[in-house]
Amino acid sequence: MSDSPTLIPSAAPPTRPNTARLLIGCPDRRGIVAAVSQFLFQHNTNIISSDQHSTDPETGRFFMRQEFSLEGLDVALPEFERHFSSIAASFEMNWRIAYASQPKRMAILCSKYDHCLLDLLWRVRRGEFDCEVVAVISNHTDLEADVRAFDIPFHHVPVTKDTKAQSEARILELLRGQADFAVLARYMQIISGDFLESVGMPVINIHHSFLPAFVGANPYKSAFARGVKIIGATAHYVTLELDAGPIIEQDVARVTHREDVRDLTQTGRDIERNVLARAVRAHLEDRVLVYQNKTVVFE
Amino acid sequence: MSDSPTLIPSAAPPTRPNTARLLIGCPDRRGIVAAVSQFLFQHNTNIISSDQHSTDPETGRFFMRQEFSLEGLDVALPEFERHFSSIAASFEMNWRIAYASQPKRMAILCSKYDHCLLDLLWRVRRGEFDCEVVAVISNHTDLEADVRAFDIPFHHVPVTKDTKAQSEARILELLRGQADFAVLARYMQIISGDFLESVGMPVINIHHSFLPAFVGANPYKSAFARGVKIIGATAHYVTLELDAGPIIEQDVARVTHREDVRDLTQTGRDIERNVLARAVRAHLEDRVLVYQNKTVVFE
Amino acid sequence: MSDSPTLIPSAAPPTRPNTARLLIGCPDRRGIVAAVSQFLFQHNTNIISSDQHSTDPETGRFFMRQEFSLEGLDVALPEFERHFSSIAASFEMNWRIAYASQPKRMAILCSKYDHCLLDLLWRVRRGEFDCEVVAVISNHTDLEADVRAFDIPFHHVPVTKDTKAQSEARILELLRGQADFAVLARYMQIISGDFLESVGMPVINIHHSFLPAFVGANPYKSAFARGVKIIGATAHYVTLELDAGPIIEQDVARVTHREDVRDLTQTGRDIERNVLARAVRAHLEDRVLVYQNKTVVFE
Amino acid sequence: MSDSPTLIPSAAPPTRPNTARLLIGCPDRRGIVAAVSQFLFQHNTNIISSDQHSTDPETGRFFMRQEFSLEGLDVALPEFERHFSSIAASFEMNWRIAYASQPKRMAILCSKYDHCLLDLLWRVRRGEFDCEVVAVISNHTDLEADVRAFDIPFHHVPVTKDTKAQSEARILELLRGQADFAVLARYMQIISGDFLESVGMPVINIHHSFLPAFVGANPYKSAFARGVKIIGATAHYVTLELDAGPIIEQDVARVTHREDVRDLTQTGRDIERNVLARAVRAHLEDRVLVYQNKTVVFE
């Protein structure tokens, strides 16, 4: 009601074009920042942002994320990366460079709940996320029409106790080579260890409690039974152990004795979708590094 | 990923059927609660919840909301209300009774921003709100397809400087007798005093700042310029004075020096839609009473 | 810097004098509110605030708190209570009446951490709490000088593995008949079941995690190890099972990968003292009712 | 209750000894990070943490904070700084180096409210802050005993309308050369422009509203009158314009229609002291840079 009508921003991509992000992890020691920033300077790039973290400056592990403009880059990208790999070797780095010109491909798995799925699709449509949604896969057809309205491929892969192996094989087929990461947007199936070992990409899950409280099924029911005054949600990378993977993002909301399980579920939906969205955005922007089942999430 | 697949709740309406809510406001004095609850008991209703507030027990104004079951009601509704009106008169009450069997009719006005509109429509579809959306009215056509996908009537009423009076007349025509209240879901037009005086129903607006900070246009720009560490949104009833009506709900989010106007706008969208949804829900459930340009919001 | 210097409020007690609070719990059925408010009206009291909660209007348990002025009370208090007891009997109520003229007597147990203890003592001194601190009991002497500066009796009751029984006997001696409730303000000793069964008064504990996450020792260390993005604190009534009693209040704070155990501990202190203070205030104001290991906390 | 009694940490200083923090601000351009980190590496220091911010990578201003260990420093400090000054000149930097071995000297001004003052003194005593409190100055004597209990010099400097100039002269005398910064811990006097121009050190104020809402006197009264659902507090550097200086930190709390001005004041106290403490800590750790009446606050 109070803005002038001319100020609506166009949905331009959130990332600056022609930029890249360098991510490294290595044993901490003197000279890492100097060597890396010297390298970037010599190749005529401009550092736009830089974040670093050390688990311990003496004996710990060092993590860094540098975002830089490729505008004036003096060599071709393969040569640029080859040059860097020799620096990386001397510091024993794990590293990768992500290019803004290559947005990540996201696949979403869901079941019947629509709130996390729709929220992700809205954000993509609105230009909040730099990514392409390559597939939505569900063990139900309830959300098919919603997905198709966004012009996104929908795949129905039903799962029964007896067909779980075939279903997972089918999902792997849809993911591998097609997606860069997968999001479980309230996908109501336990994923097998075999699947995880084969999938070859990060899988992000949203769990509807503030982990490590209320691992497993029906956390809102458990929260009600325990009489907590706060409920929450947790986005994490999926690992073999249920609900125990590296936490990317969490948030909570206050509740009172007046709220029954149904109310907690409703309040929780708003937390779930926001937490998942923030986790997906951090992942898309290469701000999450995993180490020892924990995350460094750079701002 | 961690719920069993059988626990998806059906989207039953949030309100108990066959219940009613009695709302009163009157000068505070002894005996009000006794008289009202005695009345409800004598007519064989069962009080489900009761909230009250007094601005001052000696000289103030008393507000009460009682929700009760009509299961065993011993008279017809008109007689029930007639009986109550004599109690009401003796306490100089303003009062009304809202029946769960008559859900409110909501009209939504919007422009080009989709986040508040979609969030409301999605909540209605999910069964979070007990209401019927009778019309979406917009001065642009950008959101028409979205609205029609929900099977809701969409009305395009363009507004120019010269046609403002006719446009408002057309909107009044669409609202009066058709809707019980209207929601400005980021509707980017100043509403005239004439309109407000004619519309004859509550109008809820979402303003994208924590009022009274940043009244008027471009609050995110102003927030950035001032360097605040917190941004917010405010849902309020619209009154003649811009952004100065009774506040129903507010919320905030932390921001840092890293966020530019675009980032604030994006973060703000998530606050706006949640604040507006909570305000609309409170209004639908008759939990908001207005007095002296402020609100009592019962939980 | 911006207030005028004349506006400093005196530390008047937070409770209205000559008021009382009636608390009831009983099977829900029609007519409870009518009967109770009729009773209060007939005895010429004025209801100042009223809250109620039902676990289920059909088959559940009903809770109510009514605060009322005794100004015009037409009978002596013993007779007033005797009259009420016959109403209470007909509804199978558990009930009690608390009088503002009889502030609760609080005993505090602590060890070496000062933050929760000092915060409680400051609030008492400032007039935020309606209570008398009758004793501070500690298994260490570190905080003795701090306590004596508030003119509050300090008792050193050391605890060793071998003397635990005698120590608890001594504490019981200090509490029984002297205090109305006890607060464990980071008291670093497990309290025995025998003690709890003998103490005969509510005992409030502050646990430094958002329960049920991180039950037991060293929750900040566990929180760091798990890599959570939120830490919290929980105030609860102590029961036989460790950290599993009815939760009164909880709160949280966001943390990042940058915070080590020491930082979490520091951030946590601010949450602990605020959560404990809110729980103690709710208890003092008779706003907490316990049922089935959960709490109803009226506002 | 749940920790083992042996785990109480000693109150070691929060800062690593023998470290320094380099703070710079300059026009953004390529090569800054490379030049600075190369310099630090060549002098055999180890970067412990590094943060940077650019208002715009093309045309904006660049800010950086690097914390580094002086363990292996190969030259004396004056020579180290001299070397750096030539790099600084070539990039047109504003810069300074703060040494952990030289903790800042803090002076506190207060009136009658104790909550912000006591909270600061208590945090200093606990070892949460790396600083020395050199003086507490008050226009009243109410808090003198509290301050003396911490073994800190207390100065009573009364202020009347007629003696304001002399009083400010006396305060300047107590501050200049003695303190590195001053904190207005709910000091209830408007500070003159003359004072600010003479004082020669940063002055931090805590204002009891979420600025820019409710500038000036009695913000809780104004908040109550406006009927806001959120109240807040703001810590900022003092400038000539009242309550309009660069904001360092803000926080809020939810309130309802039930809270009167007295309740808001009480709730607000908890926000005020926490916000002020976080701002003071950020200032002490050289994490705050000011530019164009806004702050960059590095984490």
Strand-helix topology:
Four copies of one chain form a homotetramer.
Chain A: E1 19-27, H1 32-42, E2 46-54, E3 61-69, H2 77-90, E4 94-99, E5 104-110, H3 115-126, E6 131-138, H4 144-149, E7 154-156, H5 164-175, E8 181-184, H6 193-199, E9 203-207, H7 219-226, E10 230-237, E11 247-254, H8 261-284, E12 288-291, E13 294-297
Parallel strand pairs in A: 5-6, 5-8, 6-7, 8-9
Antiparallel strand pairs in A: 1-3, 1-4, 2-3, 9-10, 10-11, 12-13
Helix pairs in contact in A: 3-8, 7-8
Descriptive overview:
Four copies of one chain form a homotetramer. Chain A has 299 residues and is α/β, with parallel strands linked by helices. The first copy, chain A, folds into two domains: 19-99, ACT domain (Alpha-Beta Plaits), CATH 3.30.70.260; 104-297, Formyl transferase, N-terminal domain (Rossmann fold, 3-Layer(aba) Sandwich). Chain A has eight helices and 13 strands. The first copy, chain A, has helices at residues 32-42, 77-90, 115-126, 144-149, 164-175, 193-199, 219-226, 261-284; strands spanning 19-27, 46-54, 61-69, 94-99, 104-110, 131-138, 154-156, 181-184, 203-207, 230-237, 247-254, 288-291, 294-297. In chain A, the strands form three sheets. Chain A has a seven-stranded mixed beta sheet, sandwiched between helices. In chain A, strands 2-3-1-4 form a four-stranded antiparallel beta sheet, with helices on one face. In chain A, helix 6 links the parallel strand 8 and strand 9 (203-207). In chain A, helix 3 (115-126) runs parallel beside helix 8 (261-284) and helix 7 crosses helix 8. Chain A starts with 18 loop residues before the first strand and ends with a strand. In chain A, 45% of the residues are buried. The model of chain A is unreliable at 1-13 (pLDDT under 50). Chains in contact: A-B, A-C, A-D, B-C, B-D, C-D.
